[in-house]
Amino acid sequence: MHREILRLSIPNIITNITVPLLGLVDLAMMGHLGNPVFIGAIALGSTIFNIIYSGFAFLRMGTSGFTAQAFGARQKEEISLILYRSLSVGLVLALLLLLLQYPIQWLAFQILGGSPEVTVLAREYFFIRILAAPATLALYALFGWFLGLQNAKIPMLLAIAINLVNITLNFVFIFGFGMKSDGVALASVLAQYSGLLLAVILLFSKYKGYIKKLRLAVVFQIEALKKFFAVNADIFIRTLLLLLVLAFFTSKSAEMGDDILAVNSLLFQFFFIFSYFADGFAFAGEALAGKAKGAGDGKLLRETVKHLFHWGWGAAVVFLLLFMLGFNPVLHVLTNNKQLVLLAQAYKYWVILLPLTSFAAFIWDGIYIGVTASKAMRNSMIIAAFLLFLPAYYLSLPLIGGHSLWLALHFFMISRGVLMWWLRKKAVYFD
């Protein structure tokens, strides 16, 4: 079991780490063009797509859970059907994005704002990068499908290949052809389609047996689609609430002043760093818990959960120690502003404790997705967001000021872990 967890989690951790690295390269290239307008355009445009694609992350999660269960049950035709359904849903969503791109960008820029110069370039970036929607959402479906088949190496190879192509094309378009933020957008589009092409090649080379000629009536069977959309709708609501909590954190930080916003944005990078590693074990949980449920092996499922939490606890303790020892060095890498570094010291222990208070929520998320216990996961998120996060913030704000956001975040993460633990017997276990 330990070997299985590591076999799945390590490639997923590597996959997760490639995402922020690409963003850093994009910003660094714009930062060397000498005009901050280009950085602002990339920042605004990327934010829009991060929100859109985070909202559609249910496509990967739902596909992973359903596929893992079918794999555990050795239902070969069902595995094929899940692939076709997921790709079809991804294509429909992508077409909707393309059809609605003008109202989407209008609404996004109304909310985000930005100077006229930045907005012009950000819009140009948006209209180029939106062309990648079919490839991006198809890759979501394929990533989830591969992971459900207990294969984390192909998603890792795809993520590395996509980012290498993206970075290479960035250099070519920006320093070779003299393009600016539009070059970054075009590089992203071509990289996504390159990744999709590679994914299809790997699909046919390794999983050709699952590519079958199936009747449309079977693929789009009403009851199966109802179940597929019900689970994915629950995951969508859960993801949307998570995004709203994070947006609330940023918004309230901004209301407290530019210094607090800057400090909280810097300190949140520690949380993101830990989340990349914790999500690796969560993804392993999706694959292994789903496989155990599909096989109808309740004992294996319990063993899977127990071992995942051993690794979760271990990762939390290691990161607590790393954050304790590396807090100041990492902070100095992130900023050379002495005032911000000094202000950040007041929030140091909130950051250090985050691995301990948040790891359970990450692990349970993976397990719940794997067994497709989406309603319980959705309900725990609703309770944590509205009955714990918001009251914790508003009740503590008059007493501890800026610390109230961090207190609320800890309440939010702890409550999610506790609620999913409390619901586990009914939602997860079946013996």
Helix content: over 70%
End-to-end separation in angstroms reads 20 Å
How many domains is the backbone divided into?
2
Number of strands: 0
User: Number of DSSP helices?
Assistant: 18
Order of helices and strands: HHHHHHHHHHHHHHHHHH
Mean pLDDT: 89
Give a written overview of the molecule.
The protein is an all-alpha fold. The chain folds into 2 domains: 1-220, no CATH class; 232-431, no CATH class. Helices cover 87% and strands 0% of the residues. Helix 3 (58-72) runs parallel beside helix 12 (258-294). The mean pLDDT is 89.
Highlighted features:
431 residues, mainly alpha, 2 domains, 87% helix, 0% strand, globular
Summarize the topology.
Layout: H1 2-31, H2 36-55, H3 58-72, H4 76-99, H5 101-112, H6 116-129, H7 133-148, H8 153-176, H9 181-206, H10 216-219, H11 222-255, H12 258-294, H13 298-334, H14 338-344, H15 348-370, H16 374-400, H17 403-422, H18 424-427
Helix pairs in contact: 1-2, 1-8, 1-12, 2-6, 3-4, 3-7, 3-11, 3-12, 4-7, 6-9, 7-9, 8-9, 11-12, 11-16, 12-13, 12-14, 12-15, 13-15, 15-17, 16-17
